[in-house]
Fold these 2 entries.
Entry 1:
Amino acid sequence: MNKPITPKQIVRNAGKLLKGKSSDYGARGKNFKEAALVASVIRGRVIDLREVAAAWLGFSLSRFGNLTTSEKKPPNEAILITAYEPITYGAF
């Protein structure tokens, strides 16, 4: 039987995920700044990084909820990675 994961392990794993995603997509801060610029142009007002992070956090929590309440097992998305994403966006 698997031992339950500890809060320390969750934070460590989320940190590894953030580091790996940053190497894939570039620095998270840069991505958030660019997203804020695009959103600012579209909305006609300044969108700050916290608003972008809040939107991604909401998006991530929604995806996790959809993945974990569905009857079918998702073939294209790892539930564990999706579970860690809100931690990384919240940390930003």
Entry 2:
Amino acid sequence: MTAGPAFFTLRRMNGRATLQIRFAQEDGEVRPVAASTKRRGTGARVMLEVEKEAVAAGTVYVLYRAGGAGVVVVGSASRERVESALASLGTARAAYRIARIPVEYGGGAGALG
């Protein structure tokens, strides 16, 4: 069996990992609800590169635009890094939210390097 496309697998590069962010719609707003190291399910989702520490910790903080689009700007194991990104948006930051979402690790042996 061969591995899937590179963008759907956990990548080992400079201490980073690629996660698939899944969304759910609630009260007319699309929100990130979970992240996974594997491609799963159907529906809205995006790929996001984060530190491997987020996978090891089991949670990731994501900065996303509130509303119906489900746009994720940045993700990190550190809430402070995400808050810094939010602050850099200036007056536009009112349209963005920070969410702490669980990371489901689905990789095989050695997937984290």
